[in-house]
Design brief:
This protein is of the alpha/beta class. The protein is built from four helices and six strands; from the N terminus they run βββαβαβαβα. Strand 5, helix 3 and strand 6 form a beta-alpha-beta unit. The relative contact order is 0.16.
Length: 132
């Protein structure tokens, strides 16, 4: 079954590409050399995501396969306080089984405002988002 969608809006950032798809999914693909997001980058991403979605939260997918750093406490607080402003659910890809385990454990212990789930492939992540 092939996916049928078009790109409605796009915004290139210095560290990745944000797109709003016709199937209602907001996506972010970081550049290959992006390994962590700073607080300043997260603030810029929030503004861009809200601009792309006209301030209406959407399903959100991010490719986190190349991210290797851990977020600091300021970044975690910022994401916790603002994620729901652009996302109704969050699916991400992550290649590390250990990272998936730690993240799922953290999600279980600290219930986020929006559903979050990690996947090995983009196809399964998008499939989950569309099932919501």
């Amino acid at each position: 079954m092939s996916e049928q969608y078009s790109i409605l809006k796009t915004k290139q950032l210095a560290y990745g590409l944000a797109e709003l798809r016709s199937d209602g999914i907001l996506t972010f693909e970081p550049n290959e050399n992006t390994e962590i997001y700073s607080l300043e980058q997260l603030k810029e991403m929030l503004l861009v995501f809200k601009e792309l979605t006209n301030g209406i939260p959407h399903l959100y997918y991010s490719n986190n396969n190349n991210l290797v750093g851990r977020f600091g406490s300021k970044e975690k607080v910022f994401m916790s306080e603002h994620f729901h402003e652009f996302a109704t659910a969050f699916a991400m890809t992550e290649k590390s089984a250990l990272t998936r385990f730690v993240t799922h454990s953290s999600i279980y212990l600290n219930k986020p405002k929006v559903p979050i789930k990690m996947f090995k492939t983009k196809a399964t992540a998008i499939e989950w988002l569309k099932s919501l």
